Amino acid sequence: MAPRPLLVKGTDPVSHLTPPQIVEQLDHYIVGQVEAKRALALCLRERERRKRLDPEFRAEVGSKNVMVIGPTGVGKTELARRLARMVEAPFIKTEATKFTEVGYVGRDVESIVRELADASVSMVHQERLTEVRDEAERLATERILTYLIEGGPAAVAESEGPSTTNERAYMKRKRRAMARRLAEHELDERVIEIEIETDEPYSSVVEFASGIGPEEIHEQFQEFMSQVSATKKRSRRVSVREAQRILGEQEASKLIDLEDVVETALRRVEESGMVFLDEIDKLVSRGADYGPDVSGEGVQRDL
For the whole model, what pTM was predicted? Predict the structure, then answer.
């Protein structure tokens, strides 16, 4: 007799919700569609149960697709979107017809997974930015205070060195006074010279991760980090308000572990990613092997 699968404690936000409770949550956003809500709630619970299985048994339980049928405007997309938000899962909506628009080939069906990975990286990256925002703003404020007091990057570099006790005490008082004025937004329009990074190989971690598969991540990430370490710096004159935004973004980027972001995002795609495939009815074959529907034959198989 085969051993009973072992369960491990779930960590997802919806892991403690029953199907009726999931339906109740959906009722706050979508009117009616009771049967659809119940069916999707059951599917969601089955997915959560699968994730709680011991890894040895999890691979034996495949995830299932759900077909939702109904006219435009009844809430099909919104149901899927809300479910994805409940479980903090990456979500994309795509039209099946886009894969047959170019001749008989259309776009590569595998691009669905790449788009889902991009959405997942963006989601995780935003979560990490939220986590480090307070610390990033604090560090940015400290840099701005230094620029305000010392006069700019060059002056800051020249001022580094031993100083007398009286000078240090004076600078502390001056810094506290400047911090108070900065907190009260009295200096928002003052123009200061700051040091910013230039020649960034990627505008964001999202751009870096676009199109990268699990088998390529480690090699690509090493290349990415080598390019990041080679970025140059230059001075720029901006208002204090703009400097807070620019320096806040720089400090936040330094606090985020990019490799962890990408690995977490790919894991979410594998375990909980959701794809809403719209207009699939337009690809359904009527049984003939010729005519206008022939361009969708291969797409049906790939999907």
Answer: 0.69
